[in-house]
Amino acid sequence: MAGFFGLFGGKKNQAPQSQEPFFLSEDEAKTFGNIDYMRKEVVVRHTFARKKGQAEELESVKSISALSSKQVGSGTKPASTSFSTSFTPSTPSTSASDKPAPSTASAPVAKRTPDTSMDMFRNMAKKIRR
C-alpha cells in the first residue's frame, strides 16, 4: 500500500520561476476588448427630418473614437425659403392680458361621495387583522 504514495502523489521537478515581476502592457491590462478597433475613428452622420418651411434636412456629422469625439461638419443651416419673410399666422395671437384668469373661489368644489360597494370587504379585512 505504501508504494502508491510515490506513484500518485510524487512531486515533479518544476522549472525555476523568474525573479523579475510580470507586468502586462497598458493595452493588454485593459479589458475593453479589441483596443485597435476602439481607437479607430468612425464618422457618424445623423440626419433629422425636414421641418415645415425648410427645403433641406438637418444633419450632424461627428467623428467618434474611444478617446475623443469631435464635430466634423454639420448641415444645420436653415434653408432659405421665399415665403419665410411674408408668412403671417392665420390665427390671431392672444396675449395673457386678454384671457380671463380662472376663478377658483366662484366655482363650487364638489366632494366625491364614498363608494359603499367595498365596505363589506373592508370590514372582513379589518376582522382578519385582529
**Structural class assignment:** alpha+beta
Largest sheet: 3 strands, antiparallel
Overall shape: flat
Count of beta strands: 3
Q: How much helical structure, as a percent, in the residues? A: 10-25%
Number of helices: 4
Mean pLDDT equals 71
Order of helices and strands: HHHEEEH
Q: Could you tell me how far the N terminus lies from the C terminus, measured between alpha carbons in angstroms?
A: 72 Å
Which percent range describes the beta-strand content?
A: 15-25%
In short:
The protein is an alpha+beta fold and 130 residues long.
How would you describe this structure to a colleague?
The protein is α+β, with helices and mostly antiparallel strands and 130 residues long. It has a domain of 33 residues. Helices cover 19% and strands 15% of the residues. It is built from four helices and three strands. Strands 1-2-3 form a three-stranded antiparallel sheet, with no helix packed on it. It starts with a helix and ends with a helix. About 11% of the residues have low confidence.
Question: Key features?
Answer:
alpha+beta, 3-stranded antiparallel β-sheet, 4 helices, single chain, 130 residues
Write the layout of secondary structure elements.
Elements: H1 4-8, H2 26-29, H3 35-39, E1 42-48, E2 58-64, E3 69-74, H4 119-129
Antiparallel strand pairs: 1-2, 2-3
